[in-house]
Design a protein that fits this description.
By secondary structure, the protein is an alpha/beta fold. The protein has ten helices and twelve strands. Strand 10 and strand 11 (about 220) form a beta hairpin. The structure holds zinc ion. Keywords: Hydrolase, Metal-binding, Zinc.
């Protein structure tokens, strides 16, 4: 009996340890958000356990940080061409994905980033790419291939946003070693401040960006792997129809939800930042108040 208990405790300790994401260096960056648009809807349309009587604000953002005096973005949010781009959507998608844009679209343009990290290439994350032809655009190679493939869903990938020959694509050079539960990672500046992690599922090359903002806090930008932070805490799917329309592989997305849940349990310094969940990301200071 004692032996069984010992093995049980040991296996628990080992599995908990597997989800610890180690600190890789002494680097920090400050992160800001730039909201370029938003959309209010019943929470029940967002995730499986959401309520019809609760209003959920979906927000569309670029996130900005500086490293060694140079600016970088995570996603671009909406660019100046968003209205024209949106007109190319199928009619039903225009009804479902309608939004209000904000003046911050002009602020994003002023950022002049050295590099842009894309969580994925969907229309609401890549809209301003052609405004930054001098910047490196950093994506997973599979995401790039999928976004240009014949079979891409036209309501999610708008190729006119990223087919300019002047875009300076850079594919992530993954370090193929374990990082906690992840099979590979990329420590962008080799100082542990910004770590890219694979979160394949929502799209073929969806990534997360783990940013260390102080000795006590890390922010995990998880893209659209979830739309509501409670999905991570409660291990809950997106709303069924929304997931069918936007998730490339529901099974892979759910695997990542379980993974993020375990990461959340074992790393209390990490705050989760789903791209679109206003309530979950509003603690990140706004670049323009
Ligand atoms: Zn999105």
């Amino acid at each position: 009996m004692k032996l069984i208990l010992f093995i049980f405790i040991l296996s628990k300790a080992v599995s908990a340890q597997d989800y610890k994401l180690p600190i890789l260096g002494s680097g920090f960056v400050k992160v800001y958000r730039l909201e370029t648009g938003h959309n209010d809807s019943p929470e029940a349309l967002v995730y499986a356990r959401g309520k019809w009587g609760t209003t959920h604000r979906s927000t569309h953002n670029a996130f900005a940080f500086d490293h060694n005096g140079e600016r970088y973005l995570i996603d671009t949010g909406f660019g100046e061409g968003i209205e024209k781009q949106f007109q190319k959507m199928p009619f039903w998608a225009k009804l479902l994905f309608r939004y209000e844009q904000t003046e911050n679209i002009k602020e994003v343009q002023k950022q002049n980033p050295k590099g842009i990290f894309l969580t994925h290439l969907h229309w609401d994350h890549a809209s301003a790419l052609e405004e930054f032809l001098g910047s490196d655009v950093i994506v997973d190679k599979e995401e790039y291939k999928d976004a240009f493939s014949e079979g891409r869903p036209e309501h999610a990938f708008l190729s006119s946003q990223y087919d300019h020959s002047g875009i300076n694509w850079k594919f992530i050079k993954w370090t193929k070693k374990k990082y906690g539960p992840f099979k590979k990672y990329y420590d962008v500046f080799s100082d542990g401040s910004v770590i890219l992690l694979p979160l394949y599922g929502h799209t073929k090359g969806s990534i997360g960006v783990l940013v260390r903002v102080s000795s006590k806090e890390r922010i995990f930008f998880v893209g659209d792997s979830v739309w509501h932070a409670s999905q991570i805490y409660e291990k809950s799917h997106k709303m069924w129809l929304s997931s069918c329309l936007t998730d490339g592989s529901k099974e892979e997305v759910f695997e990542k939800i379980i993974l993020m849940h375990n990461v959340w349990r074992e790393n209390k310094d990490i705050k989760f930042a789903p791209s679109h969940h206003y309530e979950a990301i509003k603690f990140i200071p706004s670049l323009k108040l």
